[in-house]
Amino acid sequence: MPNFEPNAVIRGAQLTIVGTVRALRNPELFKHEHFRQAGFAIAVGVAIELIIQIPIIGVKFLLWIISWMADLESATWDDTLLESLDFLSKSVLQVPFLVMTLMRYITPTLDEIFMESIKWVDSTYVDKHKADDPKTLRAMYYPSLAMYSTKGSVGVSKPKGESMLVFVRRYGRKVGMMLGIFLLSLLPIVGRFVMPAASFFSFQQMVGPAPAAAIFGTGLVLPKRYLVTFLHTYYSSRSLMRELLEPYFCRIKYTHEQKRRWFADREGVLFGFAFAFTVVLKTPFIGVLMYGIAQASTAYLVTKITDPPPVPAESEGFAESQVTWTNKHDFLQLSLENIDKINVAAQNKKGGDKSDDPDALRRKFA
């Protein structure tokens, strides 16, 4: 079954809507400390945005002065310069994404939002199915996840400082790649082939050579700005999804190879989920606030594309068991109304366990 099929992307987009609506119903999401951290992040974002915009405004002002002394109506270099500066600020640097990702390494707020949201998803699931047979309900996520340490194991996860350095390097590579592609596209003659070629090589492994070739051909016809937006959204969605899932991966330890296969098996759903948030996060100032909503919604996503984790003492082999999304076909075929039916009876519960009692489950999340 292809991993990047239209049905998977659509289901991911549906999870974005459902996850956001359910997250916004959680009163714990609006705690004072969350707003305080969001306010700080907005202040940082505004400062960085101003730092970036000052030279851009300066260049525009300089061009305005030059236009009084020289005829720029027939010139194209000024439009190219302004287009390049706009691309640099909006599509390469991505200030809201950068600010909120760096905040993850400074304060635990985003991790707390994720765990509060996991707790909320579990409690609403129990309330929604309180009339059902407890033995048919899925196992809970929050109680086990809360037991896991966020400290990394040697060779798997890294200390916070090293993780931050890894992110900065990854961010730098992505900025360099996007900037390099854009600059190459400005070259005469060969420049028009750069964006379509980059799109082809990005997608041919996921969707196959024929659809990738169609993207290449379309890129030769459409204006360059559409292909730039397409490529930027694709790479940004991948980066955003990796950062949003960090609270899960810092607890459930995967090797680099296991994580690569985990993402590959779910890439269609993950792209569909992250796409809308990627677009909204580009909005100046409010994009920072939306990052918190995206983090809360990711908790709902995790309950749909992974199995409930065991307690840490029984976690050996669990990560490997999650690499392949075993119920993917069933999940993608479900109607939106029945989306909660996956992971039903995810684990056999022992007779007489208090967790079999719906009232006991509700008390656990009270």
Automatic annotation (TrEMBL):
User: Which keywords are on file for this protein?
Assistant: Membrane, Transmembrane, Transmembrane helix
Query: Where in this protein does the record put region Disordered?
Result: 347-366
* Record bears the keyword Transcription: no
Give the stretches traversing the membrane.
40-67, 175-195, 201-222, 269-294
Basic and acidic residues composition bias: residue spans: 350-366
Q: Which domain of life is it from?
A: Eukaryota
PANTHER family found in the cross-reference section: TRANSMEMBRANE PROTEIN, TRANSMEMBRANE PROTEIN USGS
Q: What name does this protein carry?
A: Transmembrane protein UsgS
Q: Which organism is it from?
A: Aspergillus caelatus
